[in-house]
Amino acid sequence: MSLLKIIKYPDPVLETEAEPVTEFDEGLRKLVEDMFETMYAAPGVGLAAPQVGISKRVFVMDCSGGRDPEQKIAMINPQVMMKEGEQTGEEGCLSFPGIYFPVTRAMRAVVRAQDIDGEEFEVDGMELTARCMLHENDHLEGVLFIERTSPLKREMVKRRIRKLIKQGEW
Ligand code: NI
């Protein structure tokens, strides 16, 4: 396994719609393994392929931070089947290190995806699981969490990042 470089905003790959996966081969298996390793090392609870520069519809997540094997999930070609309710909570993103702000999302989400062998499965998740699946699924559409806040907050975050880039601290 190897650690992948995490791409930071404003790299255009992060705002590009990712391509469906058609080959469930060794290359995909390796990508998923490397993405898990990179996510745990960061550390983070979710990582989407565009965040490592691969514009494919793949994300990995583990809301237990490695404590519960059942929560270690790779979703390939995911589709959001159902969303319900609302929750507002602090959110971060590995492509925006050190930046956190409240984001409102559905309280519950049902997401259907393929596993590493191409088999379909579904996750019916609440709270952090729902938040994580929706945040990562957004990445595959090229939608970033700064789009899920108010225009004012978004401009504040962008300004802060521009300043950090100028200072060589991003
Ligand atoms: Ni993210």
Secondary-structure topology with pairs:
Blueprint lengths: L25 H16 L4 E3 L9 E4 L11 E12 L2 E5 L9 E5 L2 E7 L5 E7 H14 L10 H16 L4
Antiparallel strand pairs: 1-2, 2-3, 3-6, 4-5, 6-7
The site of nickel (II) ion (NI) has 5 residues, from helix 2.
Give an overview of the whole structure:
- It is a single chain.
- This protein has helices at 26-41, 127-140, 151-166, and strands spanning 46-48, 58-61, 73-84, 87-91, 101-105, 108-114, 120-126.
- It is of the alpha+beta class and 170 residues long.
- The chain has a single domain, classed as Peptide deformylase (Peptide Deformylase), CATH 3.90.45.10.
- It has a 5-stranded antiparallel β-sheet.
- The longest helix has 16 residues, at 26-41.
- The radius of gyration is 15 Å and the shape is globular.
- The chain starts with 25 loop residues before the first helix and ends with a helix.
- Nickel (II) ion (NI) binds at residues 93-95, 135, 139.
Number of domains: 1
Percent of residues in beta strands: 25-35%
The radius of gyration computed from the alpha-carbon positions, rounded to a whole number of angstroms, is 15 Å
Percent range for helical residues? 25-40%
Provide the CATH topology: Peptide Deformylase
Strand order of the largest sheet: 1-2-3-6-7
Order of helices and strands: HEEEEEEEHH
DSSP strand tally:
7
Mean pLDDT figure:
97
List the keywords.
3 helices; alpha+beta; Peptide Deformylase; binds nickel (II) ion; two-stranded antiparallel sheet; 170 residues
